[in-house]
């Protein structure tokens, strides 16, 4: 996993270096290809880095570690957006930001050298393809993972449609520019940070199922608010609530995957998690685009909110008790 993190950081640095050197002559299709490659190597980095947490942190402290991991990423995104906006406002060349990104990636690559070697896991003498097949069998043979990933897929199918709906809402309903998405993004990030901060504390007090599925209902409230709001400031508090729900959901989900997975399959389980989460983006955009082209925005958000409410309610009803953090009450197989 340590080598994968170093490799993904190095390749992303190389891609940004290429982009910096040829920025003035790069065409839009090539730019899209480079951005796609960056996203692909993000999928190498994220599962590996997340899978390192249970290697070094015991079970009782994993919720806090996962919360710190999520908060670090979120806070750095806020800082990066603020710095980028400030630099661009001062009319500095875009190359300044790209060079800063290259330096940050190279520093991150060097920092991985300091990561201790993770405890060895016994995977026998299986070939790589056999290990991959074994990992997939582990995912789909477990009822708890099948149920969890199904609910994640449905939730992300709706949640990732939100950005397209918001763009339509801002431009066609409120007649505002898409630059106002930045305010929505900031409110979301603040909410995610708060949700990640409180998640470990709530896990110790409440049945974790109540942290996993009610966030679907919070997302539904935000959808409903979009259907009836007539100004952006009215909506901003709802995006903080939405972010709070996402922060709770992410930290709780990651902690459960770590608890339920065998050490040999940590990376494979998180790879599946990120593939399920990100893989819903394309069908989500297609579905929401079709709904917006045939229905009003009020009808579209009503359909989306209904799906989220039904999914959240079904999760609460059908998913067995998980237990309070550190006191698991069930182990579904």
Overview features:
333 residues; Growth Hormone, Chain: A; two-stranded antiparallel sheet; 14 helices; 2 strands
Task: Describe how the helices and strands are arranged.
Layout: H1 2-21, H2 28-56, H3 62-89, H4 94-111, H5 128-140, H6 143-159, H7 162-173, H8 181-203, H9 209-212, H10 214-228, H11 232-260, H12 266-279, H13 281-294, H14 297-318, E1 323-324, E2 327-328
Antiparallel strand pairs: 1-2
Helix pairs in contact: 1-2, 1-4, 2-12, 3-8, 3-11, 6-12, 6-13, 6-14, 7-13, 8-11, 10-11, 10-14
Low-confidence stretches: 120-126
Total E-strand runs: 2
Class per helix and strand makeup:
mainly alpha
Helical residues, percent:
over 70%
Order of helices and strands: HHHHHHHHHHHHHHEE
How much beta, percentage-wise? under 5%
CATH T-level fold name of the largest domain: Growth Hormone, Chain: A
Task: Please give a structural write-up.
A two-stranded antiparallel ribbon has the order 1-2. Helix 8 packs across helix 11. The longest helix is centred in the first third of the chain and has 29 residues, at 28-56. The chain has helices at residues 2-21, 28-56, 62-89, 94-111, 128-140, 143-159, 162-173, 181-203, 209-212, 214-228, 232-260, 266-279, 281-294, 297-318; strands spanning 323-324, 327-328. The protein has 2 domains: 1-59 and 92-119, no CATH class; 130-319, Growth Hormone, Chain: A. With 333 residues, the protein is an all-alpha fold.
Summarize the structure.
The protein has helices spanning 2-21, 28-56, 62-89, 94-111, 128-140, 143-159, 162-173, 181-203, 209-212, 214-228, 232-260, 266-279, 281-294, 297-318; strands at residues 323-324, 327-328.
């Amino acid at each position: 996993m340590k080598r994968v993190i170093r490799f993904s950081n190095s390749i992303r640095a190389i891609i940004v270096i290429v982009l910096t050197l040829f920025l003035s002559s790069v065409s839009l299709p090539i730019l899209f290809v480079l951005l796609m490659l960056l996203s692909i190597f993000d999928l190498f980095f994220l599962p590996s880095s997340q899978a390192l947490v249970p290697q070094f942190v015991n079970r009782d402290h994993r919720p806090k570690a996962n919360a710190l991991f999520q908060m670090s990423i979120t806070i750095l995104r806020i800082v990066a957006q603020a710095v980028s906006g400030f630099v661009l406002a001062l009319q500095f060349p875009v190359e300044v930001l790209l060079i800063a990104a290259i330096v940050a990636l190279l520093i991150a690559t060097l920092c991985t050298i300091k990561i201790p070697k993770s405890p060895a896991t016994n995977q026998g003498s299986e070939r790589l393809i056999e290990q991959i097949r074994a990992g997939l069998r582990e995912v789909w043979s477990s009822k708890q993972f099948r149920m969890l990933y199904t609910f994640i897929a449905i939730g992300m199918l709706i949640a990732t449609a939100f950005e397209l709906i918001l763009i339509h809402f801002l431009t066609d309903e409120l007649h505002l520019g898409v630059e106002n998405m930045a305010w929505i993004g900031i409110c979301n990030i603040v909410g995610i940070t708060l949700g990640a901060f409180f998640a470990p504390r709530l896990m110790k007090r409440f049945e974790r199922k109540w942290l996993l599925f009610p966030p679907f209902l919070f997302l539904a409230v935000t959808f409903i608010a979009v259907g009836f709001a007539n100004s952006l400031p009215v909506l901003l508090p709802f995006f903080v609530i939405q972010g709070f729900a996402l922060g709770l959901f992410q930290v709780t989900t990651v902690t459960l995957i770590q608890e339920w997975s065998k050490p040999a399959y940590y990376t494979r389980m998180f790879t599946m998690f990120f593939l399920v989460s990100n893989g819903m983006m394309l069908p989500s955009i297609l579905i929401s685009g079709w709904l917006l082209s045939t229905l009003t925005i009020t009808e579209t958000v009503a359909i989306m909110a209904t799906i989220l409410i039904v999914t959240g309610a079904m999760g609460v009803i059908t998913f067995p008790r998980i237990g309070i953090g550190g006191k698991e009450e069930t182990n579904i197989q």
